[in-house]
Design goal:
The chain is an alpha+beta fold. It has three domains: about 70 residues, Uridine Diphospho-n-acetylenolpyruvylglucosamine Reductase, domain 2, CATH 3.30.43; about 150 residues, Uridine Diphospho-n-acetylenolpyruvylglucosamine Reductase, domain 3 (2-Layer Sandwich); about 110 residues, Alpha-Beta Complex (Uridine Diphospho-n-acetylenolpyruvylglucosamine Reductase, domain 1). It is built from eight helices and 20 strands. The radius of gyration is 20 Å and the shape is globular. The structure holds uridine-diphosphate-2(N-acetylglucosaminyl) butyric acid.
Length: about 325
């Protein structure tokens, strides 16, 4: 039998800090805890919601669901000819894992420092920052396939990673529950310093090592992203929209300051933060929810508000951006 709690408060389990209760919730500390929670008759017929750090969700009300609080630990180092293969439990903290691998002499995750959340959540949106995405450091993951009841290993191709996207946001959405992730860290390390802001931060250090790059990433993020322990938020609220070259050229003729980045497929990613900023939303307070003053892409909750109010603001922002630039921006977090 699983150790279920009824009407369990989730405020401490979502970084927006919204008040919400789960009909049932269980702490999952092993694969066998997971199996018992899924087969428990008390949860029969209820939807299952897996929460890691709760750093990429918007809770819009109480969850009439069986909420599994993913806390599976683990850290095991293996290797093949070219790579360290580090298998980490889904419930381990991501940022702590970045620090631990570097301290253990296996650099590679330094550009992804200070991203909130757990290791098991990282593949779902293919976390990325400062020129590196998880998929470039990913070997495989272990998950329970709810369709067959079997544990499976899914490799890089099967996970179908894209920009803030994967199998787990699409066909695999309610099918797989991730229990461990195997990271692939090349034994021959190459720093990634192609992100302008990161290169500038490290200007005074001729050949920075992974620990120095990690420190620089922490410095940049701390300057422009709010600490969820202080202000409720889920990092970037919108994805940067990707548009055809013709659309980008037309926009950039009209708005010479438009920020855009060429993509390998010939299209362009537009900086949603810039688009929102141009519409005057940066620093806006709409009662208990608002737009962060130092980064227009981040929505914040000051306390006492609801996920529904936040979504209302998000829609207003997306509508205004679309009316002005003809581009629809989409939310990044999972809305529950
Ligand atoms: N900008 C503005 N005004 C703003 C915000 C941004 O003009 O209010 C401009 C900036 O001046 C810059 C451009 O927009 O020229 C891009 O801004 P930034 O470098 O801050 O990156 P971003 O596109 O806003 C993305 C990721 C972040 C990631 C950084 C660094 C997305 C949705 N966001 O932000 O990821 O840390 O790049 O790689 O792709 C997250 O996903 O939660 C997240 C924080």
């Amino acid at each position: 039998m699983a150790d279920f709690h009824e009407f369990y408060p989730l405020r401490a389990h979502n970084t927006f800090g919204f008040d919400s209760h789960a009909r049932l919730a269980a702490h999952i500390r092993s694969e066998s805890d997971l199996v018992s929670a899924l087969s428990d008759p008390r949860a029969a017929g209820l939807p299952v919601v897996v929460l890691g750090g709760g750093s990429n969700v918007v809770l819009t009300g109480d969850l009439d669901a069986s909420v599994l609080l993913m806390e599976i630990p683990g850290y095991e180092v293996g290797h093949d000819a070219a790579n360290w293969l580090v298998t980490v439990g889904a419930g381990e903290n991501w940022h702590a894992t970045v620090g631990r691998t570097i301290a253990d002499g296996m650099p590679g995750l330094e550009n992804l420092a200070l991203i909130p959340g757990t290791v098991g959540a990282a593949p779902i949106q293919n976390i990325g920052a400062y020129g590196v995405e998880l998929r470039e450091r990913f070997h495989s993951l272990r998950a329970l396939d709810r369709q067959t009841g079997q544990f499976v290993t899914l490799d890089l191709d099967t996970c179908a990673f894209g920009y803030r996207d994967s199998l787990f946001k699409r066909d695999g959405r309610d099918r797989y529950i991730i229990t461990a992730v195997t990271l692939r860290l090349p034994k021959v390390w190459q720093p990634v310093l192609n992100y302008g802001e990161l290169a500038r931060e490290l200007e005074s250090i001729p050949a920075p090592d992974a620990a120095q790059i990690r420190a620089a990433v922490i410095a940049i993020r701390s300057r422009k992203l709010p600490d969820p322990a202080q202000i409720g938020n889920a990092g970037s609220f919108f994805k940067n929209p990707v548009v055809e070259a013709a659309r980008r050229d037309a926009l950039s003729a009209q708005y010479p300051a438009l920020v855009s980045y060429p993509q390998p497929d010939g299209r362009y990613k537009l900086a949603a933060g810039w688009l929102i900023d141009q519409c005057g939303f940066k620093g806006l307070d709409d009662g208990p929810v608002g737009v962060y003053g130092k980064q227009a892409l981040v929505l914040v909750h000051h306390g006492g508000g609801t996920g529904a109010a936040l979504l209302g603001l998000a829609n207003r922002i997306a509508d205004t951006v679309e009316a002005r630039f003809g581009v629809r921006i989409e939310p990044e977090p999972v809305i529950l």
